[in-house]
Design goal:
Elements (H helix, E strand, L loop, with lengths): L5 E4 L6 E7 L2 E6 L5 E5 L4 E3 L4 E3 L4 E3 H11 L12 H11 L10 H16 L5 H9 L1
Antiparallel strand pairs: 1-2, 1-5, 2-3, 3-4, 6-7
Length: about 140
């Protein structure tokens, strides 16, 4: 799966897959329950491919962080996003040791972990295979 079609919609739980474009916005399908949702221009929508996490040196794309977590967990599920703030920060510092502690909040870490686990459950973490097939 390519992160260009995975969306985070403000005010809506979980992640959504872009299905079709409409005159007034687009149609998205929830990765949690499969329900379809019409999304208008008034919604604040983020494409996961465009999200990055601050480090002291640069911004690291979300795809790279997901791949690091996938390697750390051998393709399995990460810790729960509901763990304590200290556990969350400790885990995140293992995944991205140079993250900017002043600009990356616990809520950001929770989202990254929650999104990773959701994509992992749906089997949508194989970014390299998609890239290879798109290049051919």
């Amino acid at each position: 799966m390519n992160l260009e079609k995975i969306l985070a919609i403000s005010g809506k739980p979980g992640l959504y897959e872009l299905k079709a474009q409409t005159r007034s916005g687009f149609l998205a399908e929830s990765l949690i329950d499969g329900k379809k949702l019409s999304v208008g221009m008034r919604h604040n929508v983020s494409v996961l491919n465009e999200i990055a996490i601050y480090t002291y040196a640069e911004e690291v794309p979300l795809k790279d962080i997901f791949n690091t977590i996938k390697e750390k967990e051998n393709g399995g599920e990460a810790i729960s996003h509901k763990v304590s703030k200290n556990e969350l920060e400790s885990y995140f510092s293992e995944v991205l040791p140079e993250y900017d502690e002043d600009r990356v909040y616990a809520s950001d870490m929770k989202k990254v972990i929650q999104w990773y686990n959701l994509l992992q459950k749906r089997g949508l973490l194989d970014f390299d295979a998609v890239t290879t097939s798109e290049e051919e």
